[in-house]
Structure formats: C-alpha cells, structure tokens
Design goal:
Layout: H1 12-15, H2 22-65, H3 70-88, E1 99-102, H4 103-132, H5 137-148, H6 150-170, E2 181-184, H7 193-224, H8 229-236, H9 238-266, H10 273-300, H11 302-334
Antiparallel strand pairs: 1-2
C-alpha cells in the first residue's frame, strides 16, 4: 500500500495499481538491483579508498613541508565533500525498495545531502576561477586576496551552500506532516515541484552557465597567450577540468530526470516503472561521479600520484625484506 503524499506521485513498484505492468516492474527491479550491486561492489570501495588516500597524502605533505598549495587545499576540500556524498549513497542500499522513515527524518537527510551536493559544485567553480584568474588582469588582484584567505573563502562557500540547502528544504512542503511515514530518497518524491525546479536551477543550470563562461574564457586565454604560462597552468591543474567534466556528465542525466519528475507532478501524471528505473540509475550516477572524481584525483594529481608510488615502493621493500628474512630463517633451520 502506498504511503500518502501531497503530490499524488507514487513509485510504481510500491503501489502496484491495476494499470501497471507487473512484468515491467519486475524487470526494472532486477536491473536496478544489478546496477546497485555493481556500484556497491566497485565504485564505493574504490571511491572510499581513493578519498582516504588523498586525505592522508595531502595532510602528510602539509605536515612535512608546513605549506599547502592552493590546488591541494581545494582538492582536499572537494575530496571531503565527495566522501560524504559516497556515504550518503548508502541510503540507496535498500533498492529496489526504499527507506520508510518520517518526513522530518527524510527532510534532514535530504538537507545534509544537498549541503554536500552544492558545496562540491561551488568548490569546483572556485577552482576553475582560480585557474583562469591569474591570466586576467581584472581578476588577478581579487584571486590573490582569495588565495591569501583560503579558510575564509572556504567558509563563505560552505555557508552559501548551506543557505541553498535550507532554501531547497523549505520547498519540500512536508512541514504539515512531519511525523507521517514516507518512502524516502535523498531528493524526496513527495516534495513539491518547486523543490525540483529550484534544485535544477541552483544545482545545475546556473553552475553550468558559469562553467561554460569560464571554459570560453580559458579557450580565449589559450589563443591569446604569447608564452607557455597558460598551458603550464592547465597542465598543472588538469584534474580540475576533468572534475568539471565528470560533474557535468553525471549530473546532467540526474537533473533531466528531476525536471521530468517535476513535470509529472505539475501535470498530475503517473510515473512509469521505466521512469522509476531511470531516476534510480540517475541517482547512482551522481554517487559514481564523486567516486570517479576521487579516483582521478589520486591517479592524475601529481603529489597524490607520487604519494601512491612511494607507498607502493615501501610495500614492495617491506615484502622483499619479509621474504629475505623467511629465507634466512628456513636456511638456518635446515642446517
């Protein structure tokens, strides 16, 4: 039996009304179950291990050298938010079923997730801006001040993300039934259409426009550059461009499904099993994007890659010493 919500939009797999094709529901549940197993078995371990390694390498480097470069500082911040998004993905382990919790608890989880969701994109925008600003006379002085006050800049970014999250939470529309039980996703199905539209605008549309503007400015700088300074900057921060690309690709499909969901609510239409399947896959794509960001940071960012090689060499030496010791011990016992 479906739990009541104000939008009159329900998950087909949880309602099983007479007009729903049962075979299509079973097929959709089998697909999302297999996709979820692949995500939990591959992307989650790789993402968590990569994120922990990034934190360890950058923090160890800062302790040893008593200095942290701007790129390392922002990558460390992005790694933390990506790790939290991966942790929030554990709310999806019940698929093809859903968490049954109160609207109050669901709104709290959604608000915390949106905080990390908005913080990641805002940090990447800031990183993109720091990459192109030194070659722009009007922005260079501003970015110098920003880089000299990185903690303050990070605090402003986080506070702005919290405000966006609170704005989205205020549009859920569940304040009149906080203790009622609902099927919960990180973007609740029973949220008002305004919630979906605001999250699409603030969480994808506007950031994409800014990223496109920064990218065009970067291309212009490459064409106008008389020396190799711009190319060297891009080469040193290529992981930032890759992060932006992954963010766009993984969140594009998800936000298309958000708009589709809002249109179903506004037109008072029913969700099909295929649309439910696509929305669940789109949600896993967002989580996978965070894992991919962490993996590529570890493998492509110079200090992190160097730290991995040093760790591998240390383990190799440790194994060789262990084998040598075992060989000597066996030889001595044979005598």
């Amino acid at each position: 039996m479906a739990l009541q919500n104000q939008t009159e939009l329900y998950y087909p797999s949880q309602t099983l009304s007479p007009d729903i094709d049962i075979e299509e529901v079973i097929y959709s549940q089998n697909v999302i179950s297999r996709v979820l197993h692949g995500y939990i078995g591959i992307m989650v371990p790789l993402g968590l291990l990569s994120g922990i390694a990034i934190l360890a390498i950058i923090i160890r480097k800062q302790i040893r050298h008593q200095i942290m470069e701007n790129v390392d500082f922002y990558l460390l911040s992005v790694a933390v938010t990506d790790l939290t998004i991966i942790l929030y993905s554990f709310t999806a382990i019940t698929r093809p079923s859903y968490m049954e919790i109160t609207n109050l608890a669901c709104g709290a989880v959604s608000s915390l997730f949106n905080m990390s969701y908005f913080t990641t994109q805002n940090l990447l925008l800031l990183m993109f801006l720091t990459m192109i600003a030194p070659n722009t006379s009007t922005l260079s002085s501003l970015m110098t001040m920003v880089n000299q006050n990185r903690l303050a800049t990070l605090s402003v970014t986080v506070i702005f993300s919290i405000l966006l999250s609170l704005l989205a939470t205020s549009l859920l529309g569940t304040h009149k039934s906080l203790q009622a039980t609902t099927f919960c996703q990180l973007d609740p199905l029973n949220a008002k259409p305004e919630y979906d539209l605001v999250k699409f605008t603030a969480g994808f549309c506007l950031p994409t426009l800014f990223m496109l503007l920064f990218f065009l400015l970067l291309v212009y700088q490459l064409r106008q550059a008389e020396d190799s300074t711009v190319k060297e900057t891009i080469q040193a921060q290529k992981v930032t461009i890759l992060h932006v690309a992954i963010l766009f690709v993984c969140r594009l499909f998800y936000n298309i499904m958000l708009i589709r969901r809002a249109s179903l609510k506004l037109c008072v239409l029913s969700m099909s099993p295929r649309e439910e399947l696509l929305f669940n896959i789109a949600e896993l794509m967002v989580f996978s994007g965070s894992s991919l960001n962490l993996i590529f940071t570890l493998t492509l960012h110079g200090p992190c890659r160097l730290g991995v090689w040093k760790a591998l060499r240390f383990l190799k030496k440790l194994c060789c010493k262990s084998q040598t010791y075992d060989g000597v011990e066996m030889h001595s016992s044979a005598k």
